[in-house]
Amino acid sequence: MPPLHQAQRAMRALRRAALQRGVIAILDLGSSKIACLVLRFDASPGAVGEESDVGPMAGQAQFRVIGASVTRSRGIRLGEVDSMQETERAIRTAVQAAQKAANVRVDHVIACFSGGRPESHALFGEADVEGPVVTGADIGRVLAACDMPDLGPSREVLHAHPVHFALDHRTGVSDPRGQAGQRLSTDVHLLTVDAAAIETILLCLKRCDLECAGLASAAYVSGIAALVEDEQELGAACIDMGGGSTGLSIFIRKHMIYADSVRLGGDHVTADISMGLQVPHATAERLKTLHGGVVATGMDDRELIPIGGDSGDWERDRRMVSRTDLIGIMRPRVEEILEEVRARLDFAGFDQLPSQSIVLTGGGSQIPGLDGLASRILGRRVRMGRPLRVQGLPQAATGGAFSAAVGLTLLAANPKDEWWDFEAPPERYPARSLRRAVRWFRDNW
């Protein structure tokens, strides 16, 4: 078993202990911002008609957001830790502000990140059912029977979810436990990331005196938050345009079947504006946020935008730029991002899904006119997404930039990774497990 699997099992134990105590923190480690939400869980479901800042925990217990904070991300580039000290300082700032707002101390966090160069793998396994009905041991055997691909020495498994089970002639079974049958098979989606990226994040959280109770891919949790249930069931893609990278996840039958990442985002658009207009990065970000767009109209030539500045050069500080010129700088980079996303969708076979809706979310998706441009480039209908199915969020955390953080709250409330964490009996491990152990001893001793 890879070391990350052992660490994740320890994380699950920490998460269960934190949920029993009733308080846990959510940490979104983005390239442009770090968001922290403090959740309080109730041990039992609230009474019917109870007041409304309590959100449903996917049909189980209930939780509410009691503290929230956002700080500028320092030390994270392209979704990965670039400077340990700066990242540590930013995490401490966000967590301390959220603790102060919640008036409670938090020791356990569940984090998501967008880096690590995610890769998807499809696995298949089958095994005989030993008893009259399917049990957890049968599921453990069929999962152990999946043929593991060669992930490489520097890759670790972040998510491993059965997409569906087949029991004899019945396919598309979501949960075979307790059902009668003789032959059980499953298709599993495996998401791997760079081991160094995960190890660096865990070390950074430890330096912040925080216990990591879970890790997740930002593309995965953004899809959980932004896609409605029908889209997750029939097939849809979620494009999370962040600051340093653009995450892509495809869902069908309420399971993620593909995830990828494009190492381009909103910060690259800002950098283009900064270089094109010869202005500081902060000024370029302000121009993009207040006046940016990707579709020019006839009126934009006459809309002059003051660039401003405090360089001391009067002629330079009073420069004006038309909105058409600003759009001309932004549009090529946005088109490049969408072209990369379209290539990933074509590679994943997205056109084979029954429904081919696409949802744009993330902070970078707020550019005016982006949905129309994305619809033309991707060739499918596109809608703008925002976090759904969680009540009681602060007003500042209801936009698309917080889809990953809100999706992580839903995942913390209804974890899917431990549903299928069954141990197979040692004598039932396939022969290749022995071969893998022999190879490990030969390489390491």
Automatic annotation (TrEMBL):
Keywords recorded for this protein, A-Z: Cell cycle, Cell division, Cell membrane, Membrane
Subcellular localization(s) per the UniProt record: Cell membrane
Domain SHS2: start-end pairs: 24-226
Biological processes per GO annotation: FtsZ-dependent cytokinesis
InterPro entries reported for this sequence: ATPase_NBD (IPR043129), Cell_div_FtsA (IPR020823), FtsA/MreB (IPR050696), SHS2_FtsA (IPR003494)
UniProt entry tagged with the keyword Membrane: yes
Membrane topology: Peripheral membrane protein
GO cellular component, one term: cell division site
Record HAMAP family: FtsA (MF_02033)
Family: Belongs to the FtsA/MreB family.
Function, as annotated: Cell division protein that is involved in the assembly of the Z ring. May serve as a membrane anchor for the Z ring.
Subunit-level organization: Self-interacts. Interacts with FtsZ.
Protein name: Cell division protein FtsA
Organism taxonomic ancestry: Bacteria, Pseudomonadati, Pseudomonadota, Alphaproteobacteria, Rhodobacterales
